[in-house]
Request: fold
Amino acid sequence: MQKLGQHFLTNHRILEKIAAAICIKPEETIIEIGPGHGELTKLLASKLLAFRIIAVEKDKNLVKFLNNKFKKNISDEQIKIVEGDALKLLSNLTTHYSLLTTHYKIVGNIPYYITGHLLRIIGELENKPELIVLTIQKEVAERIIGQSPKMNPVRGRPAEGATMTALGRSASNGMNLLAASVQFWAEPEIIGFIPRKDFQPMPKVDSAIIKLTPKKRIENEKWRMEKNRFYKLIKALFKQPRKTILNNLREGGLNQEKIKEICEKLEINPSLRPQNLTIKQLLTLSTALN
Reply:
């Protein structure tokens, strides 16, 4: 099982917190990625609401175990165990699951190595979930919620109101490529941290529970063009994060004077590093540069 990067969450209190975060409503479908031994699956099923769980598990031995463990729920059609790779199944969501309702949510304890790939796939889904709650590596979660540090230009300290963690430290070192790519389509929020001792086998790092709320948008051709422009921009901007906005865009093939002109119009200092930009500034910049 370790070959698939699985670490099973054993703290029931944390499992309860994840179940509460998914905010289950009647008639919803919950897609659980990597149910493992079914601890969270069992907890979700015990809520006794009119909803269905589709648990996607890659490990054949665990699929057999889960089918046996939830035999009654499966016969009642409350739980469906699907053997396969979620990275491949999710992109064809509506065709793979005939039982999928209009409103669905995604939950899962995610192997660390698939996090970025999984988020890209969810971000590309035309029929996005209402909510996503994932257990991922703590450092990755903190990168996803990255915000402009709003540094004091004189003293170099975070401005009043800057996002902070529960421990009182700055939540991130600013905007970054992962944060920008996720925040384009979702509002991220860390709702809790999980120490490594709460997993079996114990991983080398701590984890975090992150909640992603997809933004309500009509994903038509205009939106797809906007998305392509945006991703092209952030790839150029964050290719060398320690360089300035001006230098990164210039090396991306844009005219220096044009960059300065647009930045001035948008009240963006081109001499700053890209980490100082907000998601709103990135969106307006991608539109203006087009």
